[in-house]
Description:
By secondary structure, the protein is mainly α. The protein has one domain. The chain has helices spanning 2-6, 8-33, 40-50, 55-86, 101-104, 106-125, 140-148, 151-178, 192-213. α2 packs antiparallel against α4 (55-86) and α8 packs antiparallel against α9.
Amino acid sequence: MLRFYRSTVGKKILMAVSGIIGIAFLILHMLGNLQIFQGPAKLNGYAAILHGPLAEVVLAQRVVLLVAVVVHVVMAWQLTMRARAARPVGYVERRSQAATLASRTMRIGGVLLLVFIPFHILHFTTGDIRPAGTFTPGNVYGNAVASFRIPWVAAFYVAAMIALGLHLYHGAWSSVRTLGIAGPRPHPLHRPAALVLALALWLGFTAVPVAIALGWVR
């Protein structure tokens, strides 16, 4: 196991598996968030179930997710340092053949997401950050509406979701390649499954702050 962990392949596999765990969580989280369009009773009732009958399941889920995030970040850092050590001098001329905007912004987007995740937890989970000035435990609908009516809050969430969408587009594609689920393609930039997944999650998460900011959800 130690040899596996120290190897570059092992680190890439750990990064891929932890990323897939994160994607699974994001899908469930998005489906829960979209219940805001069904009204306060639906969303707040869903939140009450998560913190009531399913509290232990949610706690276990959070532990697994936390471990996955830590592993993902540590592996990304170690692989980056290993790549830099292998080539301390940059290319004189570098031409990207299969790079995309998503792959070129993975590190920048990852840093933005590392800032966004604790902000989001302190904002909507614990209520320690209160842009609207108030926070009512259990009133997820009211807290969301009050917060996303503030332009900078909505803009920050939208920007973070753009970073998330780009991160998912490249990450979902590279993860299945790393695990050997998908083999080489004649057209490496043709990634329909990753594109659909990234667009669906980006749209699902972005719809909430945008709808509230525009007054469609009150």
